[in-house]
Amino acid sequence: MPSIGFVVKPERTVSKLNDILSEFEGLDERERFELLAEFSRKLPELPERYKAERDAGLHRVPECRTPVFLWIDLADGRVDLHAYVAPEAPTVVGFVAILLEAFQGATPDQVEAAPNDLLERLGIARRLGMTRLPGLNAVLQRVKSQVRKARIEVAGSK
User: Fold this and answer.
1) DSSP label at 131?
2) pTM of this prediction?
């Protein structure tokens, strides 16, 4: 089985994400989804200050069939990421929990260095099917695009 880890330039190390990828490496499909379920139990509750926006439908990732909402800011040059995912979709909850664990407190460069084929590297893409795979990929791309947007806004305010 090929390695599912990835290597980036040392100055752009994404150590949390590399650690997570290492956890998935070498597991069979059943074990990977069990680990994904463990991550789903780690997704923090959405802070109260974002619940009204969620309830109004703001910050939703429309490409994902499961309701996924993301809030991304930069605080002192670090990513501050919050999310809500409908609890009836544990696979989606688990993937979003992985993104939060990997990217919370990361630099924008670290988020941008994350591989676009993350689902494949986690070894879960094949079982997701053609309806969930594009939606989950859209969640990752939304995180990256919102981090880029936040970076531009911060640079423009200086």
Assistant:
1) H
2) 0.88
